Amino acid sequence: MRAPRQTLGVLGGMGPAATAEFLRLLAAHVPGTADQHHPRILMLSDPSIPDRTAAVLSGGADPLPHIAEGLATLARWGADLLAVPCNTAHVSIDRIRDRLTVPLVHIVDATLEAAMRLAPGGGWLAATTGTVMSGLYQRRARALGYRLLLPGDGHQNAVHESAALVKAGRGDDAAALFGRVVRALWRREHVPVVAACTELPLAYEAAGLPREMTVSSLDALAAACVDRLYTHETAPRRLQPTGAPA
Q: What is the pTM of this model?
């Protein structure tokens, strides 16, 4: 086999541990047996991007200018396909998606498609409070006719805190907390957990929960990128329209 002609551009750092795991999963999904079979990847990890949940919930600093500049930089560097391993960042990305000059693999689409394959009857949405309150997943799920169950406020706070603990480097605490909340959700309805925050798959695995009962947004995005690179040609670059991010 040969490596794909397209170059993947990854805007990461939201957060760093999730970005590192995304790169590992990308390599694991590649259908190759040698270094030379893997795709060329341009990586821009920018942990200085303002907090995405704070922007949604409390009018914190807008991450969009930083995200737009990061994606534009990757395009200038030569990326033919873009990926952002952060779910809440896609609230901002959706505001400029039609102005991007390079195609983007959307993490929400990839995750819901994986969820529908694993659990056609529906799943629990485990995400940051910013992602939940934005309605990002709920809107797309409704359009697909897919049932997403939402945790109550107490459980939602615990889910969000689990993600924050991963970002803080407290993996054991994150695993213990997320394990408790997932088991509580399963007592209400035993359907898979859609880990729609890229820190949560790390907490889920560390908690020792059954792999067949979750959909990892990190893994779904990695698999979708590999599928796009190896089995589909990306669309040609478009001329940058007036007003698009520079």
A: 0.93
**238 domain-assigned:** no
Same domain, 225 and 193: no
**Total domain count for the chain?**
2
Q: Is the dihedral of CA 203, 209, 215, 221 positive or negative?
A: positive
User: Is 122 domain-assigned?
Assistant: yes
pLDDT tens, the chain, 246 aa long: 888 999 999 999 999 999 999 999 999 999 999 999 999 999 999 999 999 999 999 988 999 999 999 999 999 999 999 999 999 999 999 999 999 999 999 999 999 999 999 999 999 999 999 999 999 999 999 999 999 999 999 999 999 999 999 999 999 999 999 999 999 999 999 999 999 999 999 999 999 999 999 999 999 999 999 999 998 654 444 434 333 333
| Residues forming beta bridges with residue 82, ordered by sequence position | 9, 104
Helices (H) and strands (E) in the chain, counts: 11, 8
Q: How far apart are CA 229 and CA 232, in angstroms?
A: 6
User: Residue 227 is part of a domain; what is its CATH number?
Assistant: 3.40.50.1860
Q: Are residues 96 and 148 in the same domain?
A: no
